Amino acid sequence: MQADTKKPVLSLRGIVKTFPGVRALDGVQLDLYPGQVTALIGENGAGKSTIVKTLTGIYQPDEGQIFVDGAETRFPTAQAAGQAGVTAIHQETVLFDELTVAENIFIGHAPKGRFGLIDRKAMKARAREILNSIDADLDPGVKLADLGIASKHLVAIARALSIDARVVIMDEPTAALSHKEIAELYELVEKLKAQGKAILFISHKFDEIFRIADRWTVFRDGQFVGEGMMDGTTEADLVRLMVGRSVDQIYPKRPAQIGAPVLTVSGYSHPTEFEDITFTLHQGEILGFYGLVGAGRSEVMQALFGITQPSKGATRIGDDVRVLRSTSQAVDAGIVYVPEDRGRQGVVKGLPIFENVTLPSLSQTSRNGFLKLANEFALARDYTQRLDLRAASLDQDVGLLSGGNQQKVVIAKWLATKPRVIILDEPTKGIDIGSKAAVHDFMSELAAEGLAVIMVSSEIPEVLGMADRVIVMREGRIAAEFAGDQMTPENLVRAAVGIEGATA
Amino acid sequence: MNILKSRETILGIAILVLLAIIASRFPAFIRPQNLANVFTDTSPLILLALGQMVVILTKCIDLSVAANLALCGMIAALMDGAGVPVPVIVLAVIALGAALGAVNGLLVWTLGIPSIVVTLGTMTIFRGTIFLLTDGAWINAHQMSDAFKALPRTLILGLPIMAWIAIAVIIAFAFLLSRTALGRAFYAVGGNPHAAVYTGISVGRTQFWAFVFAGALAGLTGYLWVARYAVAYVDIAGGFELDVVAACVIGGIAIAGGAGTVAGCVMGALFLGIIKNALPVVGISPFWQMAISGSAILIAIAFNARSNRAPGRIILKQAEHRS
């Protein structure tokens, strides 16, 4: 079946979606053509996942139009999107482990027999038919829990076909697949194309995009920056579009006095998350860690902080060579970690601000084993004032603070332990501009005072604006390291997505 | 904080209303001497509820407290029969109770088994051990020494030692929870275990200590119980663990962990104790007692669920803050 590949089956125009403090999508457009694969390209935070959620009816756009076959429509629910023929295969496919393949394929729209009961025989037969059409050698009667990830993808695709999907969204479908499975996925995509499906393919990996896509669309910071055919487009063109901006924000980076090495990590490896991580951190330095989401940056930091154990490698802190076995050992050694997920890993909601701040420093504030509330308050006041925390009182529940102020509480908590190394994981993600500036300002101040800072960040301007040196990670390894003039947006992105020659 | 304070205020008012209703039918109930008796009578519940409270604060539950009490009580009676002096018996049962609690704690900590399963198992093991020790035989008043039976009943300033022990433990726990690093850790671990790990607090070790406290209190209460009622057998305090959990829930200890106060816990226990003591005197069938305690639990949980629904309000407050 050769569908008309000239007219888009699905079009988005002027889609705007805002969240408190963020404009996730700012008037974007997107066209998907039958029988063609459109690659959606953009950095972390460009709006890719928001557009997927808009397409599948999970988010409602604030403005803009959705056209299916040229007719304007709306997807008020996930079901509505499904009925219009839009289906998504997620990174972590949403299926039911305890049900069989056939049940998973037909859940919600199983063929009914007499008395409205599910016609199991028809269901199995239909499932086998669909699985055959994609050359998937799976038994419809087997439980999903017994299948590998690649097979689960096949089931998800079969499910998409069972509801006559016309648009298939693949969001990082190869993230957890082996090379062989990826090759099979490519074949499958070719089959879907031949059946006239429009495919939206979201991937960070340039080799994949060039291998499989017919068209490309680039988003940047929630805005549409361009689209075109893959033919005649080079990697350099796409990278330029992805980063295409100058670092125009002013970062309060002060010239740092870089001193002696504080922390040396050598050969840190983990069976599944990262390998051979080696670097040295100096006093007064801000070391940036850039990479795509899932490159293993946070995992390395969690191992440094003693939350997980590396299988190989050692850290040298001052003159001490050791592997940190627990977070309390890390805190004692002077390494502290401000996690990315503030709400879950940072603050203890329900406890007042001052108790959150003093939690790791209780030995400082107590005498003979008994806590001295006055000392606690004094310590909490010192550090929260330095960070310019806005709160009615230190006795207030920390859960009542805004995200930015919660972040300040977490940072204050760690500074009160007088650390030598502070690791900040996405320190300004999702916080308002004002708090952002305060955190940046404070980071420079800390470095100027001789603290060694590791900043994990997915925001290029932040990395370039704040870091003295940048390590780029890709797929669990250090891909490149840049300093001085080499620290350009192009170099960072090329190293992060894995374009050859990036380490020059 | 205000919500918690007001929750305790509401519970306090509920207790006063309860007393007023009882007094309207039976004025003698609220004579100081009778109230002191009610308090003494409720002391075992208060002691166990305080231990249970720290366990619940850390997101766990200890169903083995009553069995622990019964085992320690039986050991106390057996030691008394062997002629061991009473002070040694008291220290021994506290240590034994703590050790039994430590078993629970270690299983939860090192094997990561859910506490409800661990303590369901140890509860049965503890009861079974009593049977093995005694072949199901009772130890009765005449087999116990006078010194053994007298201690909980000895009056100091008009109150029996049993009540004074409860008061001392209440004060000690108030101090433990508000003025020690371990007490703070109980709240942190229950309030947000992930953040506790990221702060260098060991969740498992903190839970272990909570079980040790609960066990030590159960051991002490085991002696007090057996000495006061002057009888020990396999099934003493059977089902009492549910009263203990009920006292905590009524007292506003969040079953999800991380929230609750000593004052609330004590009032929760007193609320149940008053109902238990008052119903016979006002001539209501003791079967009503269960229905009333049950309703109190449901009301308390509904109330807690409502105050936990605060997030909506929190968002608005932030918006207020921002504008």
TrEMBL record, chain A:
Gene Ontology molecular-function annotations: ATP binding; ATP hydrolysis activity
Domain spans labelled ABC transporter: 10-246, 258-500
SMART domains: AAA (SM00382)
Source species, domain of life: Bacteria
Keyword Membrane recorded: yes
Gene3D superfamilies membership: P-loop containing nucleotide triphosphate hydrolases (3.40.50.300)
UniProt cross-references to SUPFAM superfamilies, sorted A to Z: P-loop containing nucleoside triphosphate hydrolases
InterPro entries cross-referenced by the UniProt entry: AAA+_ATPase, ABC_carbohydrate_import_ATPase, ABC_transporter-like_ATP-bd, ABC_transporter-like_CS, P-loop_NTPase
Keywords recorded for this protein, A-Z: ATP-binding, Cell membrane, Membrane, Nucleotide-binding, Repeat, Sugar transport, Translocase, Transport
Subcellular localization, as worded in the UniProt entry: Cell membrane
Membrane topology term: Peripheral membrane protein
A Gene Ontology cellular-component term: plasma membrane
PROSITE patterns linked: ABC_TRANSPORTER_1, ABC_TRANSPORTER_2
Name listed for the protein in its UniProt record: Sugar ABC transporter ATP-binding protein
Organism, scientific name: Paracoccus aurantiacus
TrEMBL record, chain B:
Cross-referenced InterPro entries: ABC_transp_permease (IPR001851)
Segments crossing the lipid bilayer: 49-76, 88-109, 115-134, 155-177, 208-230, 242-275, 287-305
One Pfam family cited in the UniProt record for this chain: BPD_transp_2
Keywords assigned by UniProt, alphabetized: Cell inner membrane, Cell membrane, Membrane, Transmembrane, Transmembrane helix, Transport
Keyword tRNA processing: no
GO CC, alphabetical: plasma membrane
Location of the protein in the cell: Cell membrane
GO molecular function: transmembrane transporter activity
Membrane topology: Multi-pass membrane protein
Chief location bin: membrane
Keyword Disulfide bond: no
Superkingdom of the source species: Bacteria
PANTHER family: ABC TRANSPORTER PERMEASE PROTEIN YPHD-RELATED-RELATED, AUTOINDUCER 2 IMPORT SYSTEM PERMEASE PROTEIN LSRC
Assembly notes: The complex is composed of two ATP-binding proteins (LsrA), two transmembrane proteins (LsrC and LsrD) and a solute-binding protein (LsrB).
Function noted in UniProt: Part of the ABC transporter complex LsrABCD involved in autoinducer 2 (AI-2) import. Probably responsible for the translocation of the substrate across the membrane.
Protein name (database record): Autoinducer 2 import system permease protein LsrC
Species name: Paracoccus aurantiacus
